[in-house]
Design a protein that fits this description.
heterodimer, A: 85 residues, alpha+beta, five-stranded mixed β-sheet, 3 helices, globular, B: 158 residues, Aldehyde Oxidoreductase, domain 3, four-stranded mixed β-sheet, four-stranded antiparallel β-sheet, 4 helices, 34% strand
């Protein structure tokens, strides 16, 4: 399935890009699996995405826990805990 | 209901007055303004840059306001959050709530602010003499938001 992945704030800076379109293997069907898939790229990806406690995710612009299932066409965003206000 | 994410500053007084204009049922407007502090975590702060997630941020704030409406009487509400580079003493955020009575207005305003800080996708980066750094989320903000659960009774009197 195909998904759009976005990165914000410190994650975007660490990874060096704001997002990408990704064709996922069948085994990658949840937010947690997508994170692991990206961490496996190593280097900056592993450093930016390895610590789940410092990471939040959204699917189609709603906050999404790690077990959230992905569907083709989803917009998945990873970012650090929010600090607005 | 007005939600604005923008670079430009706001006039809190004008926004508060706009909430009651033409609505004689409004008996109370409570508002909160957040400002850029010149110090954070022991360092002088010269600038603060705010980033958001266009689309999701507006949606998250609308959801927070809906939740407030389910808990208290909220006649109307305005949330303005600035983005981009700001300097100390500049305004960052306005939350203003119009209600029939002060109790609902105070509570809904504080609730919206607490939830905004922990659930709306904004991120702050500050410039200090030691360099630029992303601001860490505070556990005290999580604790402030957690105070509100579960939903209190809706019919509290002012």
């Amino acid at each position: 399935m195909k998904v759009k992945v976005l990165f914000f704030a410190s994650l975007r800076e660490q990874i060096g890009r704001a997002g990408e379109e990704l064709e996922l293997p069948e085994s990658v069907s949840t937010v947690a699996a997508l994170r692991a898939h990206l961490v496996a790229r190593g280097g900056a990806w592993g450093a930016a995405l390895a610590d789940a406690r410092r990471l939040r995710a959204a699917v189609n612009q709603d906050m999404a826990p790690p077990e959230t299932a992905l569907r083709t066409g989803d917009e998945v965003a990873f970012f650090p805990p929010v600090t607005g206000g | 209901m007005k939600i604005a994410i923008r670079h430009e500053d706001f006039d809190a007084g004008a926004e508060a007055r706009a909430l009651s204009k033409g609505n004689p049922g409004v008996g109370a407007v409570a508002s909160f303004v957040g400002l850029v502090r010149d110090r954070n975590d022991g360092s002088a702060v010269s600038t603060m840059t705010l980033e958001h997630y266009p689309g999701m941020t507006e949606k998250a704030i609308a959801g927070i306001i809906d939740e407030a409406k389910g808990r208290w009487e909220v006649i109307d509400c305005t949330v303005i959050h600035r983005i981009g580079e700001l300097r100390p003493s500049e305004q960052i955020v306005l939350v203003a709530v119009a209600s029939g009575h002060r109790g609902d207005a105070f509570a809904a305003c504080e609730f919206i602010m607490d939830y905004l800080k922990t659930r709306a996708p904004f991120w702050k980066k500050e410039t200090t003499p030691e360099g630029a750094r992303w601001v860490d989320a505070r556990t005290s903000d999580d604790a402030a938001a957690a105070r509100w659960a579960p939903a209190p009774a809706k019919d509290r009197a002012a």
